[in-house]
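Posted in: Protein Modeling Q&A

I'm a second-year student putting together a small comparison for a lab meeting, and my supervisor asked me to include a predicted structure for Glucose-6-phosphate 1-epimerase. I've never done this before, so apologies if this is the wrong subforum. The sequence is pasted below exactly as I got it from our records. If anyone can share the structure token output, I'd also love a short note on what stands out.
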Amino acid sequence: MPVEETETKVILTHPADESTSLTILKHGATVISWKYKGQEKLWLSDAAKLDGSKPVRGGIPLVFPIFGKSKDEKHPAFKLPQHGFARNSPWELLGQTTENPLTVQLGLGPEQVDPELYKLWDDGKNDFTLILSVTLGDDYLTTGIEVENTGSNDFEFNWLFHTYLRIPDVTDVVVNNFTDAKCYDQLIGENYFEKSPMISFTEEFDRIYKEIDSKVIFQVVEFGKVLTTVERDNLPDAVVWNPWIKKSEGMADFEPKDGYLKMLCIEPGHVNSFVHLKAGEKWNGKQTLRNGGEIKVQTNIY
Ligand SMILES: O=P(O)(O)OC[C@H]1O[C@H](O)[C@H](O)[C@@H](O)[C@@H]1O
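Accepted answer (user: helix_wrangler)
Welcome! Here is the predicted structure, written out as tokens:
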């Protein structure tokens, strides 16, 4: 069976190769595992809560309708907890949409969100439908989101795929194609242009790269070999995050404590500005993670 549904999960198995598969937790519609030819490509904490009591620490949590915590008291998302409610709500499997490549859809509407939580967004005035499409390709995983404003008032939101990539050792990898991109460094609270030809990791890292053209891809490269390629569609920003030693110690659901060496978050999103969605309109964004790839060097100067 290429698509199997249990009470809590949806499992997709590649029809031509059963060692390629993925698992989606219905809680948060979080992809918690992607195996390419038997090799796990996503990082999941050993202490991640998979029982719906917390957002999942690992895999691909979904961030909506706010990235981080709003600092603007007057903003409709000000009262929401960090990263909103999509990652913390029970999504519903809508069904399989294509066989080749294998695709399923999951949906979320206000009625599935904890009413206490939903009320915190603009006093519960915003009506929406989220449809997540997850595709398991031969050597890739695509997650695509459609946000529809099904209500009668306009609203605005952030979207982000909080992707935790599993890697052999974060101190051995570099990531390309952020050179000359605008960047906000969350650790020092400063804006600058990224100048490194490749970014590397020797300490805590938390940067929002902004307004990067869709044709620019990001690649995690280890000793000259591409491990994973990240492609984006209509998601202009990308957060790059590694919590390093101290921050990992402070997260109860982060295990093992040296797990930061085995993970790197590259998070395509629309977070530098809000998407304004008029009543009745739809917005789409998509990321594709591809196993391997040829090194491609691209610029952010146009
Ligand atoms: O602990 P969480 O709410 O899952 O957030 C985890 C991380 O998400 C993003 O990557 C942010 O840039 C970080 O500042 C934050 O620490």
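A couple of things worth pointing out for your meeting: The longest helix spans residues 244-249. The mean pLDDT is 98.
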